[in-house]
Specification:
The protein contains four helices and six strands, in the order H-E-H-E-H-E-E-H-E-E. By secondary structure, the protein is of the alpha/beta class. Helix 2 links the parallel strand 1 and strand 2 (56-58). The N and C termini lie far apart (63 Å). It is 22% helix and 12% strand.
Length: 147
């Protein structure tokens, strides 16, 4: 996490809040970082393109729906995404087109029962839910000619 923060700073990207480890209080006793928010991040920035497994939110502006979708899919990863829209039909339409294993629309819940897994470099297969049972099955195809 600290490496991501340092790389962002080196490229002139500074958080609105957070962006560092805790330096006081109980959280300073462990390896914890402050919740971090970056605004107006360029689409080619590492923090906009990498999977960051920590309390980090990266925002960016876009001109239209097509550009938003292009930016959402312009990464080699696709684990989890989120769409926020005042138009539910638009949000669902975008969610269907985003290359990610999970997409929440307007804060839709992703629970322990929700199948979990990614697209592209974010993994293959699914954990949790009925879809995970396929990981424990061994498929066999038998073909017979009746001629």
């Amino acid at each position: 996490m600290l490496g991501h923060f340092a790389e962002a700073r080196a490229h002139g990207i500074h958080p609105l809040t957070g962006g560092a480890a805790y330096d006081e209080g109980p959280a300073a006793q462990g390896q914890f970082v402050r919740p971090t928010v970056y605004a107006n991040v360029p689409p080619d920035a590492g923090i906009a393109r990498e999977e960051i497994f920590g309390p980090v939110l990266v925002t960016a502006t876009f001109a239209d729906e097509a550009e938003a979708l292009e930016r959402a899919n312009a990464t080699e990863y696709g684990l989890v995404a989120s769409v926020w829209s005042g138009d539910l039909a638009r949000g669902l339409r975008l969610a269907e087109q985003i290359d990610a294993g999970q997409v929440a629309v307007n804060g839709g819940p992703l629970t322990i029962e929700t199948p979990f897994g990614g697209y592209k470099q974010s993994g293959y297969g699914r954990e949790k839910g009925l879809e995970a049972l396929n990981e424990y099955a061994q498929l066999k195809t038998i073909s017979v000619s009746l001629q």
